Amino acid sequence: xxxxxxxxxxxxxxxxxxxxxxxxxxxxxxxxxxxxxxxxxxxxxxxxxxxxxxxxxxxxxxxxxxxxxxxxxxxxxxxxxxxxxxxxxxxxxxxxxxxxxxxxxxxxxxxxxxxxxxxxxxxxxxxxxxxxxxxxxxxxxxxxxxxxxxxxxxxxxxxxxxxxxxxxxxxxxxxxxxxxxxxxxxxxxxxxxxxxxxxxxxxxxxxxxxxxxxxxxxxxxxxxxxxxxxxxxxxxxxxxxxxxxxxxxxxxxxxxxxxxxxxxxxxxxxxxxxxxxxxxxxxxxxxxxxxxxxxxxxxxxxxxxxxxxxxxxxxxxxxxxxxxxxxxxxxxxxxxxxxxxxxxxxxxxxxxxxxxxxxxxxxxxxxxxxxxxxxxxxxxxxxxxxxxxxxxxxxxxxxxxxxxxxxxxxxxxxxxxxxxxxxxx
Length: 425
Hints:
Blueprint: H1 2-9, H2 14-26, E1 31-33, E2 46-51, E3 55-60, H3 66-69, E4 71-77, E5 82-93, E6 97-105, E7 118-126, E8 135-146, E9 171-174, H4 184-193, E10 202-209, E11 214-216, E12 222-225, H5 228-243, E13 250-256, H6 273-284, H7 289-297, E14 300-304, E15 307-308, E16 331-334, H8 344-357, E17 362-365, H9 376-381, E18 387-392, E19 394-396, E20 403-406, H10 407-422
Parallel strand pairs: 1-2, 4-13, 4-14, 14-18, 15-19, 16-17
Antiparallel strand pairs: 2-3, 3-13, 5-6, 6-9, 7-8, 7-10, 11-12, 12-20, 16-18, 19-20
Helix pairs in contact: 2-5, 5-10, 6-7, 8-10
């Protein structure tokens, strides 16, 4: 669990999450492949491939019988809701306050972003030899550089809705009247990276809470951190894969980007990224396309995304008979309208895996008056003929700048994932 806290602290954006995931894999004997180069895969070997620096697929090839046994896949996502910096972001208010222009990414709980020291991280691009292939650099300015001040209660005539364009602009500095700061951000990036400001072509930069993740509670039973949705599942899946041994199935972790904004990107779940890799793995072993489809039918996928726990102060928001609690075990998510992929078949598989792992499990169904969210599970199910189940660990304050999860749940989920990978074909 302490390793999870370090992973979250060092992964403020999807770019750092994938970079750190790649380092975990490299340190455990995995070899990196390139999407743009031919693959020559060996049996019982470890590989991974990145896309856009923000998505990753890692896998252990099978020793034998991959057509009969297929793939065992755990899928999660690397991105988090929050605030993204717009181009040309500098804004001067009343000739004195320097602010940055932002855009909301996904659906964060906006009120939680006020009055917290904020840092900055992401990726920037600069020229290389080939205009079609600019160079990039990851950046993490882990300093309390910004803050979005709230309005004093005395000045609120009524509870006002947060205006995304007006109220979510982080304050950077107080400047002398008439002093121009048009290049504030570029100069800051240049200072941190050593790249000249006029060479920085573009960037993908996000704000994040400066405060570190921590254990809290009377018995340190809770995890208080940002980005638990979904870095907790990323961490559990990766650490389970690196502990796994090759068998007669292909063992795989898939980390997609952009789940929080619909997944319709080249590195999102609604792309050919995963399908292409599955096909390349099978074709590399000499399988025919017919055998590829057979392997898919013999496969199983876990869509791993955090789940809603019963809120102790708002119990009426939960379903009357299907409720999840912190530290109560992994949550199987079910929806009559298939916002999740779980059905009686895949739910039965998951329950038996939990029994074999000797861990508890819980069932989550939305309150019937609430539509609820969805996951990458249904998107993948519409593209790949693979049986799947949607699960996740219970979470409070989902999409807050700081979420709350259970310590035991993270350990339970890692055991569940390890059981899936180690189960004999």
